[in-house]
């Protein structure tokens, strides 16, 4: 098993959570999401992002509005719905619990390694 494959799967597993967090800060354009995710080293391409945004919209977690652009076609800006905010809050709780659990396991492993 290649470590790169495992790393990609770990990042994919938290992609939806990260996208909802980005959108939770206010109206956001898809290319700005891509830029932020890429700068955070969560590599994602348009072919992954757009279907995920559509799925989240169809689930009622986000909505969008079209905004006219002075330099081209109208842009679609995404926002969280009330249901999306509640969903993100629940995911946040799960993330914090999971991160604490993983950190506990890592610390125990490190402590064991230090005694050997």
UniProtKB/TrEMBL annotation:
<dbReference type="InterPro" id="IPR036388">
    <property type="entry name" value="WH-like_DNA-bd_sf"/>
</dbReference>
<dbReference type="Pfam" id="PF03551">
    <property type="entry name" value="PadR"/>
</dbReference>
<dbReference type="InterPro" id="IPR052509">
    <property type="entry name" value="Metal_resp_DNA-bind_regulator"/>
</dbReference>
<dbReference type="InterPro" id="IPR036390">
    <property type="entry name" value="WH_DNA-bd_sf"/>
</dbReference>
<dbReference type="InterPro" id="IPR005149">
    <property type="entry name" value="Tscrpt_reg_PadR_N"/>
</dbReference>
<protein>
    <submittedName>
        <fullName>PadR family transcriptional regulator</fullName>
    </submittedName>
</protein>
<feature type="domain" description="Transcription regulator PadR N-terminal">
    <location>
        <begin position="19"/>
        <end position="89"/>
    </location>
</feature>
